[in-house]
Amino acid sequence: MFRPNSILQPCIDRCLDKYDWSFASKNEVILASNLVSGAVNPPFEFTYTLPVDFRRATELHDIGNDSGYARRVTPKKHIPYKVYNFNNNLVIATNKEAPFVLQYQSAVVELSLLPPSFIEAVEYLMASYLIADLQKGVMAENQSIKMVQLAYQALKVCHTNDIPIGVEWIDEPKEEQNVDLIKARGYLGAGYGYKDFI
Questions:
Q1: Cβ distance 85 to 47 under 8 Å?
Q2: How is 90-146 classified by DSSP, letter by letter?
Q3: Sign of torsion, CA 67 70 75 76?
């Protein structure tokens, strides 16, 4: 039997990966105790463990430096880093010696943190999944694609509202996924929907 709850978190995660969100942004102080012994990733000298709710890094900076939206108006020197798999765990490599601050996008499992327009996007993606699972044929395919398009529109609205008034957003948004391109690559063929590319 199909269980909608089984696709809820994957749909949330897909929406989280579309942009950087203030409600998913966190700062974590990386300490010397986070150092991973035996990890080597040239040209970086140090490798550290990541927070358990880590999804992706947005910036490393010194303790005491301004962070968050203010830094986007007056960018500071970025600390190079690389996130990679070490012994089946994501770690972060850098030449910066701890302590420093990791700014990252976190996993969000508490629905009360999600804005209404974000939840709307998640619902559209879930609808695409349901349509593809319960129906077949060209009509179902078109309906599934339409739900994906509506989801991306809702995410744009949510992202626009997520930027505080008076703050200049200088980061480039992630490249939009073109539904026609997805379809051309075979991810949204007849009878297939969003579930086939999450």
A1: no
A2: EEEEESPPSSEEEEEEEP---GGGS-HHHHHHHHHHHHHHHHHHH--SHHHHHHHHH
A3: negative
How remote is the C-alpha of 168 from its chain's centroid? 21
pLDDT in tens, 13-67: 999 999 999 999 999 999 999 999 888 888 999 999 999 999 999 999 888 755 4
3-state secondary structure of 30: strand
Separation between Cα atoms, residue 83 and residue 18, nearest integer Å: 18
pLDDT per residue over 138-172, tens digit each?
887 888 889 999 999 999 999 988 865 444 444 44
Closest CA to 105 of 67, 70, 53: 53
Give the angle 122-128-131 at the CA atoms, nearest 5°. 140
Question: 139 Cβ partners below 8 Å, 6+ apart?
Answer: none
Q: Which residues contact 61 (CB under 8 A, 6 or more apart)?
A: 67, 71, 76, 78, 79, 100, 101, 103
Any bridge partners for residue 27, and if so which? 103
pTM of the model: 0.70
Cα dihedral 37, 42, 47, 51 sign = negative
Phi/psi zone of residue 191: left (φ > 0), alpha (ψ -120 to 50 degrees), beta?
left
